[in-house]
Amino acid sequence: MARGISVEMERFPIAGTFTISRGSKTEAEVITVTIAEEGRSGRGECVPYKRYGETMEGVRAAIEAMHGPIVAGIDRTALLAAMPAGAARNAIDCALWDLEAKLTGTPVAVAIGALPARPLETAYTLSLAEPEAMAAQARANAMRPLLKVKIGGDNDMARIRAVTQAAPNSRFILDANEGWAADNIEANLAFAAEHGITLIEQPLPAGKDAILRQIPHPVPICADESVHAAKDLDALVGLYDAVNIKLDKSGGLTEALKLRDRARELGFGIMVGCMVGTSLAMAPAVLLAQGADFVDLDGPLLLARDREPGLVYQGSLVSPPDRTLWG
């Protein structure tokens, strides 16, 4: 029986407003791909990201352009060569993984060696705001062991001080989203170290981060926008201490597994992160993140409404996906 494919653009409201250094959003815009074969179907979700020149319409068009190869039976390995890394390939790749699991009866966790798949402690993200407002967010989530703080602008030291004082028992990741510059990074890093920060994500713009090779790293620095696929890693040795792997950047679980394994070979710490999406987008990432140093898969916790069934979150612990959701 030939394969069939459907593509759907969906929107899920965010609980409030989510703000980073590049702007704000009030809903998660996602694209869901369903591939059906022999009475079974597999699903994958992606989140187009403007930072990489992606739009909802453009990503949908890129997926629909693959209709012929998908119906003809393209496999995940051939997909890597047929499409560039990015959201469109991610949705197709994850749908193919899910479909394969449904057709063979072999769970994805078994196929990728992620057993026993355990609940993971995920970071919880605090939206960028003025220091007092960020302190209130931190105070409201002070019971969470790991908080990720969006920064990347003027007054970041005040923000760092505010959140660490408001949640003294939490560990903190700072995510600057490329918002620092060569003239402030050393002072910001030193201030972060003084306040016990655990990790700092992408402080400088991708491609403008050579200074990281010359300055001290009193807090480990994690590449995000600077790393998409395994081929990017060699150039990052000596610049970064860890890498943030996101399925929407790598273009799916297939490439993300290669990226993770190569990063480990090169001595990088591993973080598995996400865009703001639903449990369907997080599910494969939870399996990828088994054994990761840092997990940032809180997308559904930021939504006013998630898919049903969704992932099970208990506080900051996220459980592996039930196979009715994915995998």
From TrEMBL:
Entry EC no(s): 5.1.1.-
Residue ranges crossing the lipid bilayer per the database entry: 266-289
Enzyme class: isomerase
InterPro entries: DgoD-like, Dipeptide_epimerase, Enolase-like_C_sf, Enolase-like_N, Enolase_C-like, Mandelate_racemase_C, Mandelate_racemase_N_dom
Mandelate racemase/muconate lactonizing enzyme C-terminal domain ranges (all copies): 131-222
Pfam families: MR_MLE_C, MR_MLE_N
Known cofactor(s): Mg(2+)
PANTHER family the UniProt entry points to: D-GALACTONATE DEHYDRATASE-RELATED, ENOLASE SUPERFAMILY MEMBER DDB_G0284701
Name assigned to this protein: Dipeptide epimerase
Organism listed in the record: Mesorhizobium hawassense
